[in-house]
Amino acid sequence: MERSARKWRRLLLNPLVGRLFGFNINRRTLASIERVGLEIERVQNLDKMGIVKLIVAKP
């Protein structure tokens, strides 16, 4: 699936997910992890839409 299609899907789903589960799926999680000084070793998508990820990082 094209990246822009995933982005638009997240934009549309974000309000619903926020109300149902209380979190924001549009966060720039990987950028935040790097900004605090952690080194990302591995990122694995745990679902087909790429919303749920397993992130392995080290100091």
Q: Label the structural class.
A: alpha+beta
Uncertain parts: none
Spatial separation of the terminal alpha carbons: 33 Å
Spell out the helices and strands N to C.
Answer: HHEE
Number of helices: 2
Number of strand elements: 2
Overall mean pLDDT: 88
Proportion of strand residues: 15-25%
Residues in helix, %: 40-55%
**Main sheet record:** 2 strands, antiparallel
Which strand order do you get reading across the main beta sheet?
A: 1-2
Count of folded domains: 1
Shape category = globular
Q: Rounded to an integer, what's the Rg over CA atoms? A: 13 Å
Summarize the entry for a quick read.
Helix content is 44%, strand content 22%.
Structure in words:
By secondary structure, the chain is of the alpha+beta class. It has one domain. The protein is built from two helices and two strands. The chain has a two-stranded antiparallel ribbon with strand order 1-2. The relative contact order is 0.17. The mean pLDDT is about 90.
List keywords for this structure.
59 residues; alpha+beta; 2 helices; 44% helix; globular
Topology:
Elements: H1 3-21, H2 29-35, E1 39-45, E2 53-58
Antiparallel strand pairs: 1-2
